[in-house]
Amino acid sequence: MFSINKSLFFLKNLFFRKKSLEQYNKLLNESKLGEIDRQKLILSRVKAILIHAYNFSDFYKKRFDLINFNPKQFQSLDELKLIPVTTKIELRENNLLIKNYDKNLIAKSTTGGSTGMPVSVFHDKSFKSEVFGWYILKQWGAHISDNAGFLERYNPSKGLTGLINKVIWWPTKRVHLNINILSDEHFFKFYEKCKKNNIVYLEGYVGAVYEFALFLEKYKLTLVNLKFVWTTSAPLNEKARDKMKFIFGCPIYDQYGSCEINWLAFECERCSGLHFFDLYRYLEIDEVGNILITDLTNYQFPLIRYKIGDKVSLNNSVCSCGITFPLINKVKGRESDLIRFMDGSSVPGEFLTTIFDDYPEAVIQFQFIQKKDFSLILKFVPTSDKSKIVVNEVINILKKMWLEKNIIIDLEEVQNIPHDYGKIRFIISEL
């Protein structure tokens, strides 16, 4: 049964985002393919991206020629293992954009990454990746046109772009809380807006969502129309899930993706693993569990056997939910904590991983240490003599953002930041 929101969403997208609707319907059809047909499709898409990368990317042509790899003769997915892994260091040091890239078809994305190493990539806008979100919502019994609340880094579009976005989304209500500071005052305002607009689902960084849940418990507040909560950006542990499920009174779902290659996997209502979008992102797992991804949809900035920085294992069981996308077990990703202020407010670690998004070349790695007196130390590994200038600019932005908190932030230039089994903790709190 179509609601007014759904009907208007369909009509507006038919005019403004027709390609997205077409791609969504294609996704729905391809998700029903049998195993033989889906393996044929995956093989053909892997071969197509390999040939394209060889023909139009200097980086991959050189890489393939060095090992005498001819993508036109590619016949088996096992042959991918012949190609060297693409690392974050290589992303920083090489231009992976194709020679004849279309500037109107690329969108820059920057991330702190699971290893604490800021990198920049470009997404191919010709593939409408938002349809993955539409598909996921459908599996959870919701629709993209449903009213929703968001706890994430939020920079609203302005001018004509902002106006167009409002027209496209109307009458859907989308309530946002920018997570640069989390306090009871901000949570109260967000809660009132969510309640007023009868949000159907809540989406956000897992650390921020967890803090919001604790706020609701503290003040004995509820969101009665909430169908589910959608968490992103960091692993969701079962203890936190159980706590949030009790407070929100609805299922808590995990979705996995990265800034480099988004929309990788999601939980279904069974929560027995994550369904991986294998028709669009080819997954390999090396001998120690590292995730290697070949993006089958990005023809402007090919990523082939990219070591994303997280670890996982395959789940060979067949999910009873009926979704045909294969299962992987829970992702072992970065660990983050909260920065807490003396007044009780806080900032989730997921926000702080983005502070070098505008300056990805400034540092190799970084980490926050919060001392018992609430002061902060920002450790960073520089890329050049100019790194400290940029780092100081970032610190000044944070200090201005947290002006009323009177927080002390010191810098510490280091040669390296220790890993914990290959992962960096972005925040180490001594509180």
Briefly characterize the structure.
By secondary structure, this protein is of the alpha/beta class.
Structural summary, described in words:
With 431 residues, the protein is of the alpha/beta class. The chain has a domain at 338-429: ANL, C-terminal domain (GMP Synthetase, Chain A, domain 3). The chain has twelve helices and 20 strands. It has a nine-stranded mixed β-sheet with strand order 4-3-5-6-7-8-9-14-13. Strands 19-18-17-20 form a four-stranded mixed β-sheet, covered by helices on one side. A three-stranded antiparallel β-sheet has the order 10-11-12, covered by helices on one side. The N and C termini lie far apart (51 Å). The mean pLDDT is 89.
- What value does the average pLDDT take? 89
Overall spatial form: globular
Any low-confidence stretches, pLDDT <50, length ≥5?
A: none
Provide the structure class: alpha/beta
Number of helices: 12
Number of strands: 20
CATH architecture of the domain at 338-429: 2-Layer Sandwich
Largest β-sheet summary = 9 strands, mixed
Distance between the termini: 51 Å
Helix fraction bin: 25-40%
The fold-level CATH name of the domain at 338-429 is: GMP Synthetase, Chain A, domain 3
The amount of beta strand, in percent, is 15-25%
The fourth-level CATH homologous superfamily of the domain at 338-429 is ANL, C-terminal domain
Gyration radius from CA atoms, angstroms: 22 Å
Topology diagram in text:
Blueprint lengths: L3 H13 L1 H13 L4 H22 L1 H9 L21 H6 L12 E6 L7 E6 L5 H10 L8 E5 L6 H11 L4 E5 L5 H13 L4 E5 H13 L9 E5 L5 H11 L3 E5 L8 E3 L6 E3 L4 E5 L4 E6 L10 E6 L2 E2 L11 E2 L9 E3 L5 E3 H4 L10 E8 L5 E7 L4 H15 L7 E5 L13 E3 L2
Parallel strand pairs: 3-4, 3-5, 5-6, 6-7, 17-20, 18-19
Antiparallel strand pairs: 1-2, 7-8, 8-9, 9-14, 10-11, 11-12, 13-14, 15-16, 17-18
Helix pairs in contact: 1-2, 2-6, 3-4, 9-10
